[in-house]
Design brief:
Elements (H helix, E strand, L loop, with lengths): L14 H5 L5 E5 L5 E5 L9 H4 L16 E7 L2 H6 L5 H11 L3 E7 L6 E6 L21 H10 L4 E5 L1 H10 L8 E6 L7 H15 L3 E8 L8 E6 L6 E3 L5 H7 L22 E5 L16 E5 L2 H9 L4 E6 L1 H5 L3 H4 L8 H10 L2 H8 L4 H15 L3 H18 L1
Parallel strand pairs: 4-6, 6-7, 7-11
Antiparallel strand pairs: 1-2, 3-12, 3-13, 4-5, 8-9, 9-10, 11-12
Length: 405
């Protein structure tokens, strides 16, 4: 019977929930808004399956090498690329699966809400629900069992998610391999709490008014290199766009305040993964090639022969450039290292539960003159077309400063 004593030992992947033959495991929300398994002992038959499929219990931190290939990818459809967080590679991969009569699972909003849940889609039009990063932990629900059912029926299945979710799904399958299964993971910094997102939307609703039609965490309203947290409104003139410098939700995330406890000691930070394809951003495109522009590019690390086949099959939709895998991953700290826990994290969540939403975010992320100046400088650099150059110079100076310490 699975029992969580140290919350760092549970990544919230839902594998145990999906595996339980007696359906006696519930995923209960704690005081921070994260879900953990709770077992109804009166129904449990002590089969031990929940522990057998737990990816954290059986995590292998060894980064054992296997053959890899590296690509840079940009979707040829500029509308799809603009809607995507980076280069739109996932849409091309998922479209191929659907054209084979398959189904694609990923994280998207539950219809009519801003609750992020894993769900399956079977048309290319519906893939839009997966575009743009979701900086919040998704509820996997029954999708592991659903995906397995489609695999047993002989259908192609693409299952996408964070590294811990893919490890959870693979553990749920208990070593069984399926010819038509494609797993896609991403390079993940950490997973914020759904409660923080709910409180933030409540605060913004009170401030802005109107009816929110979409919330995007990495919108290209100002471009790829200066992406914004955007809220689109049904009422004209009430759309909201703020960058990481001034948006409270992003500031909480990048200050390591809102992540799940397991993210501060992630067991799945490695290069060689159990997925077929690993995807993430490529901001310094000029470091790799002059054949692509700076409007959004996906780095793709091919982890298997099946992943290579998929990349070859998407050639009509993607512009690609091959890159040596060593070079592709050389500057990617998030692939290998967990973020440090902010020492104020405990108080942050206490305040979240007692303060009104607007007061909570105002206390933790006041809009000071420094914040306003930072936002003004960034936006001005973007409008002058020098944002990428200025950011690169800042990082160069910052890195040299750290080296002298």
């Amino acid at each position: 019977m699975i029992h969580i004593e140290d919350k760092k030992e549970c990544c919230g992947c839902w594998a145990c929930y999906n595996a339980c033959p007696k359906h006696c495991i519930g995923m209960k929300e704690d005081e921070e808004g994260f879900r953990y398994p709770v077992v109804d002992a009166s129904l449990c038959i002590d089969c031990g399956l929940c522990e057998k499929v737990c990816p954290v219990i059986h995590a292998d931190k060894a980064d054992t090498p296997h053959a890899q290939q590296g690509f840079l990818a940009q979707h040829k459809n500029e509308d799809i690329r603009k809607e995507s967080t980076s280069g739109g590679a996932f849409t091309a991969i998922a479209s191929w699966i659907i054209r084979q009569g398959g189904i694609v699972y990923g994280a998207g909003y539950r219809k009519g809400t801003f609750i992020v849940e894993h769900q399956g889609v079977e048309t290319e039009k519906d893939l839009s629900v997966f575009r743009n990063s979701k900086y919040v932990q998704s509820n996997v629900m029954n999708t592991f069992k659903e995906a397995l059912g489609h695999l047993k029926a002989g259908r192609w299945v693409c299952f996408s998610g964070t590294p811990c979710q893919i490890e959870g799904f693979r553990s749920f399958l208990r070593g069984r391999e399926y010819e038509k299964l494609v797993c896609v993971d991403l390079v993940c910094r950490g997973i914020p709490s759904p409660r923080i997102l709910t409180r933030y939307i409540e605060a913004q609703q009170a401030l802005i008014g109107g009816e929110f039609t979409n919330v995007l965490f990495r919108d290209k309203h100002y471009g790829y290199h200066y992406s914004s947290f955007s809220i689109y409104n049904k009422e004209k003139g009430k759309d909201y766009h703020k960058g990481v410098d001034s948006n409270a939700y992003l500031r909480a995330f990048f200050n390591n305040l809102s992540d799940r406890p397991s993210c501060y000691d992630c067991r799945f930070k490695k290069r060689y993964r159990r997925s077929d394809l690993t995807l993430w951003d490529c901001f310094p495109i000029e470091k790799f090639t002059k054949q692509m522009d700076g409007k959004g590019t996906t780095r793709v690390l091919v982890q298997s022969e099946k992943g290579e086949m998929i990349m070859n099959a998407t050639g009509s939709e993607l512009r690609t450039v091959r890159v040596e895998p060593d070079k592709l991953v050389s500057d990617v700290r998030e692939m290998f290292h967990s973020v440090p826990m902010n020492p104020q994290r405990g108080q942050f969540f206490k305040d979240c539960n007692v303060l009104p939403p607007a007061d909570f975010f105002r206390k933790w992320f006041p809009i000071t003159w420094k914040v306003r100046l930072n936002a003004f400088v960034r936006l001005t650099c973007h409008r002058l077309g020098v944002y990428t150059f200025a950011k690169r110079m800042f990082m160069l100076v910052y890195t040299r400063k750290d080296d002298r310490k």
